[in-house]
């Protein structure tokens, strides 16, 4: 299929202008995208390392504080006093209505905090049975300040409670516990939840992760030993996620009890979530950092749960990214801690002790740039991830890409118009040359091109006209010569005809001569025969009698 020169010119202009420009824009887009990707990875890595060090420092500080508190004179004296007065409460007389009132408290105030799946009599299993447990919980959980007014415990509590409360407030702790080792009773608690005055060896919360942690350090002989538990849902705190740090309390060389600090999730959340100032820390509108435990569940809240919980839960529900039970728990407690499962390559690698950055699909099913690393914290295995949605990173470059595409289309239009103008400018004379050449090829020697151009096309048109004129002159000359040849041919034909006539006459004469020659030859033969006879006769006459015939 032949392509007209006009379209060839348009194609050539497109190949020489638009295509290289498009290739350059594509290369520039890819290069800018990679540059943005690397810059985002570096920024995520920086944020990740800052958060990692801040969390590690904070947990290490808590552990050091636990050891420091446990060895302080204030805590040693407080535990000794609480141990002594706590034992004395067993001899107190328990009023008949105290247990009933405490049951009412558990049913009306604490019961609604339990899961909907809990049995109706579940809270009854949590109500303490011993006199001192009931007295202390009635005094401090229900706020009946006059209950133990005359007891020594009340005086000891008033003496140490202010200092211990100020201590945990200064260090932003959730709670501080003093535990007697022999029986495992929590003889003192700042926050006073339902685990207060219960035993971590045989009480209702003995099987909790707090109780298990206490039993691990109960018989330690090391003053500086510190243990920490991972976050788990803790019933006395309303099933809120809780982690604990425990340290032994020694009076000289004798271990007299255990100090426990309840790690505040709020503080870890503030560090991980940038105190809700994500954009100020360079995480844009979709960036976040979060902690993950060995069960691949979050240890801090998701940014999207904090900002738009309903939309976040709806997304998980529509994409079926979480189990229904986890979704119900997140919806009820408005937190992703211990409920949001994150089984991504980043988490798997971080929990395996690796650090790095890559692009993955996150727990929401979105493409994100992810930076991950393990946390170096004693006794717990956590990982940290810093992530940001990929579309947000590439929004600016995609906006520039759209602008570039628009510019490319505009330039393509301009190039097409220029190419069309040039094509038309070049096409018209070339088309005339093509038409003239076709007519000339068909024998029209009168064709002439009227192109008044001072360029190669004008020179070509002038040459064409000269060629047509020369061909016309040559044709006329050839025609004249053909006419002359035709005349000569006619003369030759006449001469040939005359020669043929003469030849026929000569042939006729030759035939006549042949006949005469034959006749003469016959006569000569006849005469010769007679002469032969005559000679024969004469020869016989000379020799003798002649034949009778000769007579």
Radius of gyration: 61 Å
CATH class of the domain at 72-268: Alpha Beta
* Overall average residue pLDDT: 84
Shape: rod-shaped
What is the makeup of the main sheet?
A: 6 strands, antiparallel
Helix/strand/pairing class, anyone? alpha+beta
In DSSP terms (H or I, runs of 4 or more residues), the helix count works out at 14
Helix percentage: 55-70%
- SSE order in H/E notation? HHHHHEEHEEEEHEHHHHEEEHHH
Strand content range = 5-15%
Query: Per CATH, what is the topology of the domain at 72-268?
Result: Beta-Lactamase
CATH architecture of the domain at 72-268: 2-Layer Sandwich
Relevant CATH superfamily of the domain at 72-268: PAS domain
Q: Which residue ranges are poorly predicted, with pLDDT under 50 across at least 5 consecutive positions?
A: none
Number of β-strand runs: 10
How far do the termini sit from each other?
116 Å
Structure in words:
This protein is α+β, with helices and mostly antiparallel strands. Among the domains are: 39-54 and 283-396, Beta-Lactamase (2-Layer Sandwich); 72-268, 2-Layer Sandwich (Beta-Lactamase). Helix content is 57%, strand content 11%. It has 14 helices and 10 strands. Strands 1, 2, 3, 4, 5 and 6 form a 6-stranded antiparallel β-sheet that branches. The protein has a 4-stranded antiparallel β-sheet with strand order 7-10-9-8, sandwiched between helices. Strand 8 (356-361) and strand 9 (367-374) form a beta hairpin. Helix 1 (5-71) packs antiparallel against helix 13 (395-441) and helix 9 runs antiparallel to helix 10 (324-333). The longest helix is centred in the C-terminal third of the chain and has 88 residues, at 456-543. The mean pLDDT is 84.
